[in-house]
Amino acid sequence: MVVLEVSPISTEELWSSVSDHWVLGHPPDQGLSLLSAQFGRAVNVRDALNQAMDEELERDERVFLLGEEVAQYDGAYKVSRGLWKKYGDKRIIDTPITEMGFAGIAVGAAFAGLRPICEFMTWNFSMQAIDQVINSAAKTYYMSAGAQPVPIVFRGPNGSSAGVAAQHSQCFAAWYGHCPGLKVVSPWNSEDARGLLKAAIRDDNPVVFLENELMYGVPFDLSEDVLQKDFVVPIGKAKVERRGTHITLVSHSRCVGFCLDAASVLAKEGVECEVVNLRTIRPLDVDTIEASVMKTGHLVTVEGGWPQYGVGAEICARVMEGPAFNYLDAPAVRVTGVDIPMPYAKILEDHSVPQIKDIIFSVKKVLNM
Amino acid sequence: CVDQLLEVSYVLSQGCSLHPFSLFGSVLLTCPTAGLASMVASSRSYADFTPEKVDLHRLEEGPPLTATLTREEGLKYYRTMQTIRRMELKADQLYKQKIIRGFCHLYDGQEACAVGIEGGITLSDHLITAYRAHGYTLTRGGTVREIMAELTGRRGGIAKGKGGSMHMYTKNFYGGNGIVGAQVPLGAGVALACKYLGNDQLCVSLYGDGAANQGQIFETYNMSSLWKLPIIFICENNQYGMGTSVERSSASTEYYKRGDYIPGLRVDGMDVLCVREATKFAADHCRSGKGPILMELQTYRYHGHSMSDPGVSYRTREEIQEVRSKSDPISMLKDRMLSNNMASIEELKEIDIAVRKEIEDAAQFATTDPEPPLDDLCSHIFANDQPFEVRGATPWTKLTSTS
Fold first, then answer.
1. pTM summary value
2. How far from chain centre, in Å, is Cα B342?
3. Chain B (329-388) residues lying within 8 Å, Cβ to Cβ, of chain A
4. Is the pLDDT of residue B44 over 80?
C-alpha cells in the first residue's frame, strides 16, 4: 500500500485553481467582484441574508426582527444593515442582553400570530435561551395537538470563526438537529442563504438557521432566477454541488467549500468526488445521500462540529440502516472538528478544524489509494 | 326586573396572614320572578370601621374599595369556583386510582384567583400560566369533559391526549407550561403582539412564589417596561414553592414590589371580588398605555405541590385546616351571598348538585373515551406541512407524521 504525502496547500493557491463558476478571487469583505451580466450578479452571503430579510419584511407585515444590536448598530455582523432605517423601531427591535427573556418574548409573539426572526448574536449565546427554543417553540405544536403553531426563525452565526476561542466557537448543528419539532438549516453559499432564509421565514414552524461568520463576506454568483422575490430553497432537500463517480462527500455550511476545493485537487489525480451540500440538517435528506452512495460506493462526511454524536455520526448510522449499506465498498468515515474546546493561538486553531488536506487524506484512505 | 345588587365594602388583607373578609351594609330590593327565591329588603347597616388599603407599590391609588356584585355574577362565580373545586377533587380521586398518571398539580383553594381574574378581563384578552393550570383552562373556555379526558389521556382530551395536565390550550390561552418561569417571557411576547397589532388587548402572565425568583422574569420586567407592553404580571403566592416556604426561598417576600420600577399591588387572593377589582384596575392601567403592572395574589393550595406530595412535611395540618375554615374562597362567597339574601341555601345546593353531576358525567367520559389512535403518534410535529416519514423505534418501523 502506498501512503501519499499531501503537502499543505494555501487557500490562495487553491482558489486560483478552481473552476470557472466560482467568483472567489477576492479576499473576504472587500466588496463584490464584477461578473458578467449573463450570470445575474455577485452577492455575498451577508447581503443575500440582508436582502432576503428585507424582502420578507416587505412582503408580510407580521414579520419582524429582534436581537442584540440588530437595529441601530446595523447588526453585530452587519447582516441587518439598513433594515432599521427602512422599517423603524416597531419591526426592527434592539433587545437588552437577555437571551432567555427575548427568545421567550419572540416565541410568545409567534404564539399570538406574529412571525418573528429572533437573532442570536452567535449561536453560543443560544444556550442561555435553549429552553425557549426547545421546550416552548419546538414542542408546542405537538403538545397542543395542532392547536398552537409557532412560526418563528432563530438565526445567527454558528460554529468556528477566527481567533474567538472556546466559548465563541461551538457548532450547534447536532444539538438542535437532535430535536423533533425543529427544522434546522445550514446554508453554505449565497443562494442557500437567500433561498433558505426566505423558506424559513415563510415556514409556519420553528426554524433554527445556522449561518457562518466566515462566509458572510464571500461573494457568489446569483442568477436572475435566484434574485426573484419568491425564490425559495426547499427546506429538507440537499443539493449535489459537484457530480462524481468515485466517492461521496457529504457536508454542510463552510465545509462544503472545503469539499469542493478538495475535489478539485483530487480531480487532478483522477479521483472524481461527488459533493453533496446538505443545506438542511433536520430533516436530513437521506434519499439524496443514499442515491449518491449507491452510485459511488464510498462515503466521507465533513463537518466543523465535534465528532461525538454529530451530524456525520447520524449520516453514517442512516447509511448503515438503509439500502446504501450494501453498496459501500469501504466503511463510511467522518472528517470533523478536533474533539477539544477551541484554542486561541492560530497554529492551534488551524489544527482544530478540518482542513482540505484532511479531506483529501480521508478520501484516499477510504479509496485505499 | 332589577338586578339585585350588593354594595360591598371590603377589607383587604395586609401582610402574610389571611383575614376573613368583613362585610358592611347590605341593600336591596326584590323583584321576585319565577324560580327565584324571594329576597327581603333590609336596611343598610353601617359599622365603625376604617377599611385598610390594599398594599401598593409605586401607585398613588389602588383599586376602588367598594365593588358591586350582581346576583348573576355571584352565582356565576360560585358555580365556576365550585366546578373547579369539584373537578380538582375528582382528579385527585382518579389519580389515586391510577387512571391519571404523571404530573397532576391541583388548584383547590386557589379558585378565587382564576375566577376573579377572568372577571376583570375578557375572553379576547390573553392569558398564560404555569403548570397548575386546570382552573384556568376552564375559565378560558375549556370544558370539564375535555379537561378531564386530557388528564386521563384520551382522544377526547383538549389536546387529544398529546399534552396531559400541564399542556392544555384554548383560544387566547397559551397553557399550561411545564418549565418554571418560562411562561412569563412568553406572555410578554403575546403582549408585544397585542401592541404590535394595535388591538387594545392585553396579556395576563401568571407565575408562583417559587418562580418569582427566576432570572428570566426579571429580564421580562425589564423589556416589558422599556417597550411599555400591555402585560399584567400576576404572582399567585400560595406560600410554598413545592416544599419550600417563601421565607426559605426569597430574600424579599414582597413579590408585588419585586418588579422594582413596575407599579405593583398586593391583594387577598382568597376573595374573588378583591381579585376581580384588582384585575380591572390593572387592566385599565395596561390599556391606557402605561405599560406593565404587577399583582400579587395571596392565596393557598389545599393539596400538596402535586399528587406526589402529601403536602404535610413542610407545613402543618393545622395550618391547612385554619385556612379552610377561615378563608375558603367558595365559603366566603357563599356566606356573603346568603347573608345578603342574594341567594338561598336551596339555590346554592342546586348549583352544587348540578356541578356534581357535570363532574360525574365528565369523569365518566374521561374514563370511557378511547385512548388516541396509534396513527396519531407522530402527527402534529409541523404545521401546514406535507406528511413525512418519522423513524420509529427500529429502522424498520417507518411512521408517518401529518400536520
1. 0.89
2. 25
3. 379-385, 388
4. no
